[in-house]
Amino acid sequence: MKKIFILTGEPSGDKLASTVISKLKSQNPDIEYLSVGGNHLKKLGIHSIFNLDEITYLGFTSILLNIFKIRNKINQTVNEIIKFNPDILFSVDSPDFTMRVAERVKKINSNIKTIHYVAPQVWIWRKNRVKKIKKFIDHILLLFDFEKKYFDEENINNTFVGHPLIEKTDSITKLGNVMTKYKNVISIFPGSRKSEIDVLLPILFNFIKKMNNNNHNYDFFIHTNEDNINYIHNKVEEIKIKNVEVIFDEDIKEQVLLNSVFAVCKSGTVSLQVSNSKVPSIIIYKLSFVNFMIFKMLVNVKFANIINIINKREVIPELLQDECNADEIYKSVIYMLKHPDLIEKQLKVCSKTLEGIKSKTSSSEEACLVLRNYLS
Fold it and tell me: Would you place residue 160 in the very low, low, confident or very high pLDDT band (cuts 50, 70, 90)?
């Protein structure tokens, strides 16, 4: 029986991995799996060797403070992979964890094929990583077509698979009766890591209060995952704001988004899903001062959002660091909502940009095909 070890480092990676593995399981049911994963892989019946939240850290200082814990988890993961002896180590995103593991595994057992899904953003920072990756990654799956040149230059096997968050959503129907009691829905995306949520949620709560205090008739839906649903729900209960709902079910989240008039998104790939749903948005993010200064010294781009990076201009407004506060978020959202011409312009540019980075079929199908080829 063929074996695959699935290696993720955070909830978003767990979700991405599950879309591929779900398809692979339906096509090749006789494969044995083990993982470092979360709830999405668990629902597919795949055991994780430990809880995903034990390795989810945000920022350079957090990593430094937890360096010994991370090292122990890397050692534990490597040992479990070698013991499992898979045909493929399928690592997904979180390169600071997953690629360290893959490198160690490859040194111990070079027969294990290493396939990495979601290339590290070498076009943003640490471009020299590509040469190092070549030594221990057999194949890399790219979300964006423009990434190919960086890996082609080093003759690293790569495949452009596209981004799963911008696959077609035409088949999704809007919630009918359920949504009729809600008017002017604004979707809120505070991130998937608890460390991000702790920073952004208080700011977003103050933004919502400001909207309510100024007699704006909106309903707010906070999008989260199963790992954080209780934590965020309890926070909402504490502040006693009635027009806030917390949702984690993927189908409901997607359908609520389609019924939204606006979205406030943590900087990250979820903004692609928002744009693909033709919902106008702004981007927010905040790091500690030390982390921000380190990040600023290392990055090669001016913007945080991928659509802005591709277009080399601010198509979607970004409120970062000091600008990431309730007052600025309020001003930006209200200004956009009062200017439908700006919304139309944003959506038009986003739509054109997304068309240029979509794969021919689907990301999961393309990724699944690569895994099957290596298994055979």
Answer: very high
What type of residue sits at position 158? N
Give helix 194-213 / helix 229-239 axis angle, nearest 10°. Answer: 30
Q: Show contacts of 77-80: CB within 8 Å, 24+ apart.
A: 77/7, 77/36, 77/49, 77/101, 78/104, 78/105, 78/108, 80/5, 80/34, 80/49
Residue 179 three-state SS: helix
Residue 35 near residue 8, CB atoms below 8 Å: yes
The pLDDT of 306-317, averaged and rounded, is 94
- Topology at the third CATH level for domain 177-355: Rossmann fold (3.40.50)
Residue closest to 264 by CA, chosen among 159, 354, 191? 191
CA 11 centroid distance within chain: 8
Q: What are the residue ranges spanned by the domains of the chain?
A: 2-165+359-375, 177-355
Average pLDDT over residues 315-324: 96
Q: Report the candidate in 199, 256, 174, 189 with the shortest Cα–Cα distance to residue 222.
A: 189
Using the predicted structure, report yes or no on whether residue 170 has a pLDDT greater than 60. Answer: no
Provide the terminal-to-terminal Cα distance of the chain, rounded to the nearest Å: 12
Question: Is it the case that residue 344 has pLDDT exceeding 90?
Answer: yes
**Taking the CB of residue 315, how many other CB atoms lie within 10 A of it?**
22
Strand, helix or coil for residue 115: strand
Q: Return the H-helix or E-strand segment holding 116.
A: strand 113-117
Strand partners, 79: none
Beta bridge mates, 3: 32
Burial class (CB in 10 A: 0-12, 13-18, 19+), 360: exposed
2-165+359-375 and 177-355: same fold?
yes
DSSP strand pairing (88-92 vs 113-117): parallel
Selected from 3.40.50.2000, 3.40.50.1000, 3.30.420.10, 3.40.50.20, the CATH number assigned to the domain covering 2-165+359-375 reads: 3.40.50.2000
Strands 2-8 and 88-92: parallel
* 286 contact partners, CB below 8 Å, separation of at least 6: 199, 200, 203, 320, 321, 324
In degrees rounded to 5, what are phi and psi of residue 49?
Answer: -70, -20
* Residue with tokens 């100024």, as numbered in its chain: 214
Residue 166: how many other CB atoms lie within 10 Å: 22
Name the token pair of 154: 């080093």
